[in-house]
Amino acid sequence: MTTKPLIDQLCRQLGKNNVLWLPEDLLVLGYDSTPGLHATPDVVVYPTDSEQVKAVVKIACDHNIPITPRGSGTGLSGGSIPINGGIVICTNKMNKILEIDEENLTATCQAGVVTLDLFNAVAEKGLFYPPDPGSQKISTLAGNVMEDAGGLRGLKYGVTRDYVMALKCVLPDGSLLATGGKSVKDVAGYAFKDLLIGSEGTLGIITEITVKLIPPPQDKRTFLAYFDDIRSAGKAVSQIIAAKIIPSTMEIMDKATINCVEDYVKIGLPRQMAALLLIEVDGHPAVVAEEAEGVERILMQVGAADVLMAKNPEHAAELTAARRTALSALARVSPTTLLEDATVPRSMLADTFALIELLTEKYQLKVGTFGHAGDGNLHPTVLCDERDEDEMQRAHAFYDELYEQVLAWGGTVSGEHGIGIAKKDYLARQIGPAGVAVMKRIKQAFDPAGLLNPGKIFADGQE
What is this structure's pTM? Predict the structure, then answer.
């Protein structure tokens, strides 16, 4: 597919240093963070602006070559894996923060700006960008937009979608679409911006993003609550929300995860506990004091074994950082880490934990569960070895049965990781034939040739 004339054409448009085509350079760019999935691209390009993205897409259209957009490759559903080969457009070199507009409370960035870099840049100006996915130290804004990434602060502050005000993207025919703006209200025409968010690179390639900023909270308090059984932790989450207290963060870890994290960071987490909740309330000091009192009271009422408050901001940051290491800590235990993204109504959290315990025993697996308890978004993680066929069959049966019940409870197969390759069959179960048909018509309208990120979202035979 990658003939010398094609390579020469790409090099003329982007410069030789921004085009990779040798096999040894391409291998690593066929992975993301999803275990067991890999496909080698034919060529990888690193554009530095929207015009270069347009040029590459037009070349791909002229040669009928598939295109796969890619950021830092932290995705967990296979969305950036080039399963049909072709051209990977990696936006990591499009990494400029173009503007921080303090008058309109917005920031405009290129696609490849790292999430934490934006957070730090606006914080220096006394502003706050809340979305904070677990991979924030390396994930890029366009990747966050394409997956509608969440994070630890999602309970109170929402997810990436809630902060995107404008997008520029290159459509599959090489044209540039600008949608949205700095106006707080805008209902002119179809909401293309909202359609593109969460579209997993199947409708367009994001090149610039304008996000909303807000003032930072004036005060916050951070708790750790330990429980002798994980269902009580689930009940605590439901009762805190029912009391109309909305913490900025309410994260959970089960015993297996607690022990893996303690092995990794060694901050004194009690290994004997069945679960912990990391809870943070923030806002005006008077409100924080009232909500902190309410949280502590509920935790004791539901039977928390112990409730601790962070001693100072540094201690609070240490506890939050420990939660962010959960996946890395679990990944050290076994050769393969299968991480899922089940999300249920918060009232069903305790039942979901009970089901995970039941299925773990039924399928004889090692499972660590953590996640955004306040959102009902859990990450049951099977620690396994993909070389063991029997164990992998049991792992997939575990998830199959789990998702069947999650959907019966009115939950969803993805709260923040997207569909990609890994969850195509699950999505079809959730939205049904009519939902799939509508999505296919949208895809066809944007990408009639089917060149942009093919093989994603739709199950085999549905594209």
Answer: 0.94
